[in-house]
Amino acid sequence: MIELQLKRIAKRPTYTIGRLYTRRLESGKLSPWKYFCDTLEPHWIDFHHGGRKTKGKTAIPEGRYPVVVTMSPRFKRWLPLLVGVPKYSGIRIHSGNTSADTKGCILVGRNTEVGRVTDSHRTLYRLMQIISHRDEGEPVFIEVE
Question: Helix-strand-coil percent breakdown of the chain, rounded to 5?
Answer without folding.
Answer: 15, 45, 40
